[in-house]
Design a protein that fits this description.
heterodimer; A: alpha/beta; Rossmann fold; 6-stranded mixed beta sheet; 9 helices; 13 strands; globular; B: 300 residues; mainly alpha; two-stranded antiparallel sheet; two-stranded antiparallel ribbon; 12 helices
Chain lengths: 286, 300
């Protein structure tokens, strides 16, 4: 399968600090998750992918086009859907009007066809009922889905989502998962997240970034497999555990080097990720 | 491809037409029309017909377009908008196209004025004091403004909107409305409606010009409480050149706005052509405008 995104030695520096340090990746159809601690370079990578930011060095090809070239950039943008981490919306617009506005900016110039498309994407994210409501009247989850709806306009071949489920309640997250996973067969979806459950539930591939470099690239099952035979449960915390926590049943779940008689558990993506991160829980790293 | 810009202009223009503040401003101007109809004052009628009734609505529409251009920045959608095919340069053109809605509203206002005032060839007769010592008067028939003068108001509104777009593209802050408010007040007072300066080319470089032809001061100092300029006629030729000047000015301002984000050969070419046209029309105004029309003395 022809890769949709190819990066070679992608680097981004802000003054003296390096956000990306030579990232080599090929992304195809399906859902790819970017995991990593805060400051690992996820957002920088996604912004470069979305043509919002230029790399310092290295090459990027999306659909074979170079975003550094104005013509290539336009080609990419015509096939791109993007939801930035801090997505602002026009609060005085209705959901329909906002998505319609973005549709114009995506060159949907035929008015009737554009309105049909806006209705389709709002329907896709289950917002048809509130399309005439002002955005300021919508809940946080609905606003996020308005953001997703605009990203789906025109069936883009590449969808880039920066922490799309942050701040959503469990029900909204499930609904979001449902919408995103429906896209997987037709397009390349790249999303960053801190939610390992989301990765496990819907992603074909996971890339872990650490200090701007790729620390892991594989399937969620492979990432979980890194913790094979290294997750166990016991009545008391073990000193050999890299990380442990008390479960709801009053026992202790641990990741690390188990004792020989340990009661082993099936590992999750989170366990694999914790091991990869040296046992530092998400967010504790700089 | 201009389709996206045109659609954006249509949507932004639609939002302008639905803005209650715009209609409120027109309601205020309507009071002036009512007074002109009631009082049968030819000078008031003339001022309304040449576009002065549009100064306040025009300023409100200018505020609207400034806030519309700043909307993406104010609401945090700039990052998203930096990844769509229609870039800031084309969005600028879209905002400028939305000024056609303002122009259309201005034209509708003009139609309402024509219906309400039903102007004949002559709006009325006014007496202007020419010599206070011997009480000599200029007695003038105030003519109905010609087509170029009638269209001046809607065209000036379009120019004002384009000025707002250009300013806010280069200085992205709503504070740009402060000098523009000052400009609007100047237009409505000193430099425009209640002209306190002798007729000069400056009047014709403003978006709105009354076209009154003034003589000098008639025997009092400028510091006196009551010190008008004597009026001696009406300039009927310069308005046609002024119409061309306004068109060139609108195109020039849009090009200046676009240059903020796009500096290719095409944009520079339009910039050069519009600047050339602007200078040409300004020069034409300088050459043809009527400085003073001697009149036969009227009776006192």
């Amino acid at each position: 399968m022809e890769p949709i995104v190819v990066t070679r030695g992608l680097t981004k520096r802000y003054g003296r600090s390096t956000a990306l340090a030579g990232v080599d990746l090929q992304l195809e159809r399906g859902i790819t998750a970017l995991l990593g601690p805060n400051g690992a370079g996820k957002t920088t990578f996604l912004r470069i992918l979305a043509t919002a930011l230029a790399p310092t060095t290295g090459s990027l090809r999306v659909f074979g086009s170079d975003p550094a070239d104005p013509g290539g950039r336009l080609t990419i943008r015509r096939q791109l859907g993007y939801v930035p981490q801090e997505l602002g919306l026009f609060d005085n617009f209705t959901a329909f009007d906002f998505v319609d506005y973005v549709a114009i900016l995506k060159e949907h110039v035929d008015r009737r066809a554009r309105h049909d498309e806006v209705r389709r994407v709002l329907d896709e994210v289950d917002l048809s009922d509130v399309r005439s409501k002002k955005i300021r009247q919508l809940s946080g989850g609905m606003r996020r889905r308005v953001g997703l709806a605009q990203a789906l306009l025109g069936d883009p071949a590449l969808v880039v989502l920066d922490e799309p489920t942050v701040g959503l309640d469990p029900e909204q997250r499930l609904r979001f998962r449902q919408v995103i996973s429906r896209q997987a067969d037709q397009r390349c979806v790249v999303l960053s997240t801190h939610m390992t459950e989301d990765v496990e539930a819907m992603c074909d591939r996971v890339v872990v970034l650490d200090h701007g470099a790729v620390a892991f690239d594989g399937t969620p099952a492979t990432l979980a497999g890194l913790a094979h035979d290294r997750v166990w449960v016991a009545d008391r915390p073990e000193p050999s555990a890299l990380v442990s926590w008390r479960t709801g049943e009053g026992r202790h779940r641990m990741v690390g080097e188990p004792p020989s008689d340990a009661e082993l558990l099936a590992p999750t993506v989170q366990d694999g990720y914790l091991l990869l991160n040296g046992g530092v829980p998400e967010g504790a790293s700089a | 491809m201009i389709g996206a810009q045109a659609q954006l202009g249509r949507v932004e223009g639609g939002r302008l037409l639905r803005n209650p503040a715009v209609w409120l401003a027109f309601a205020l101007s309507a009071q002036w029309v009512r007074s002109a109809v009631t009082n049968d004052d030819p000078e008031d009628r003339y001022n309304l017909l040449v576009g002065y009734g549009l100064v306040v609505p025009g300023f409100v529409m200018l505020l609207h377009v400034v806030l519309a251009v700043l909307r993406a920045r104010a609401s945090g959608t700039e990052e998203l908008f930096s990844t769509v095919p229609v870039g800031a340069d084309r969005r600028t053109v879209g905002h400028a196209i939305s000024s056609f809605a303002a122009g259309a509203l201005g034209t509708l206002w003009l139609v309402v004025l024509l219906v309400a005032l039903r102007p004949g060839d002559v709006l009325g007769t006014e007496r202007f004091l020419r010599d206070a010592d011997v009480l000599r008067w200029n007695i003038l028939d105030i003519p109905r403004p010609n087509v170029a003068q009638l269209l001046q108001g809607p065209m000036a509104v379009v120019v004002t909107m384009c000025l707002g777009v250009a300013l806010v593209r280069w200085i992205p802050s709503w504070l740009v409305v402060v000098p523009l408010a000052f400009g609007a007040m100047m237009q409505l007072t000193l430099a425009g409606l209640w002209s306190g300066a002798p007729t000069s080319i400056v009047d014709w470089l403003n978006p709105l010009s009354r076209g009154w032809v003034h003589d000098g001061w008639f025997g009092c100092a400028q510091s006196d409480d009551r010190c008008d300029l004597t009026v001696s006629g009406f300039d009927r030729t310069t308005p046609w050149w002024h119409a061309g000047y306004l068109v060139a000015l609108a195109v020039f301002l849009v090009t200046v706005a676009v240059l903020r984000h796009r500096r290719d050969r095409m944009t520079w070419a339009v910039f050069g052509l519009s600047l050339g046209a602007l200078l040409m029309f300004a020069a034409a105004q300088v050459i043809v405008y009527e400085r003073f029309t001697p009149l036969a003395l009227g009776g006192g």
